[in-house]
TrEMBL record:
InterPro entries in the cross-refs: Ala_racemase_N, PLP-binding_barrel, PyrdxlP_homeostasis
Keywords: Pyridoxal phosphate
SUPFAM superfamilies documented for this protein: PLP-binding barrel
Functional note: Pyridoxal 5'-phosphate (PLP)-binding protein, which is involved in PLP homeostasis.
Listed name of the protein: Pyridoxal phosphate homeostasis protein
Length: 248
């Protein structure tokens, strides 16, 4: 591929991303208006998993401030390749404790904290890196009491204890809660109700932790429901970047 053709391809991709971003921004703005909320109350986090660092750089050029990944082996090199940008990196996937040190090197927020061992690992890693990492408790509405969900997350009855552990941990900051619309259980196919329950949990959590205002919910298919339920962060991937290539 010649330099000229590469440049043309890059401009075409940038135009595609700009158009997709505009459509997503319009969706968020309409949802905020319908809910009587200000657009500034909702942060768009673009999930860039499976897409190259070149796309991440284009997003930064287009004014995106927050991007997310769900696998450290993909996130770490991308964050390094984009270290000269002002992007804020979020980690949103199930996180193994042995990856905590790597994630602590680039992530400003981890949305998917769901067990005490991970709190300890992230705290040790953050202290070692001399950084503060914002954490959200991932809530699983498909989990029975005392268990975890199919895609990670603690059952609602475990949120308080986990939040207390985060709040007391060196190098960590309790930012709030996160969920993924459940695929099984009583709330399967009912994202609006799941997000409303997350908001209730958030309200209760703020009694003891008033600064934990983050409510991370909603993706490409259900961001409107999340905004209506009070989400402060929506995690949108395919609606911005397009259909994902298959994982290898």
């Amino acid at each position: 591929m010649t330099a000229a053709s590469f440049g043309a391809d890059g401009e075409a991709r940038k135009a595609e991303l700009a158009a997709n971003l505009a459509r997503v921004e319009e969706r968020i703005a309409r949802a905020c208006d319908a809910a009587g909320r200000e657009r500034a109350e909702v942060t768009l986090v673009v999930v860039t998993k499976t897409y190259p660092a070149s796309d991440v750089r284009l997003l930064a050029e287009l004014g995106v401030g927050d991007v997310a990944e769900n696998r450290d082996q993909e996130a770490a090199p991308k964050a390094a390749a984009c270290a000269d940008t002002a992007l804020r990196w979020h980690f949103v996937g199930q996180l193994q404790t042995n990856k905590a040190r790597s994630v602590a090197g680039y992530a400003e927020r981890v949305h998917s904290v769901d067990r005490l061992r991970l709190v300890t690992a992230l705290s040790n890693a953050a202290a070692r890196a001399e950084r503060e990492i914002g954490c959200a408790v991932q809530v699983a509405f498909d989990a029975e009491a005392g268990s975890v969900g199919e895609r990670g997350g603690v059952a609602p009855d475990g949120v308080t204890d986990l939040a207390e552990a985060i709040g007391a941990a060196q190098g960590l900051r309790l930012d709030g809660v996160m969920t993924v619309a459940p695929l099984s259980g009583p709330l399967a196919g009912r994202p609006q109700e799941a997000f409303a329950q997350l908001r209730e949990i958030s309200t209760g959590l703020r009694t003891a932790h008033p600064a934990a205002t983050m409510v991370s919910a909603g993706m490409s298919s259900d961001l409107e429901e999340a905004v209506r339920a009070g989400a402060t962060h929506v995690r949108v991937g395919s609606a911005v970047l397009g259909r994902r290539p298959p994982l290898r």
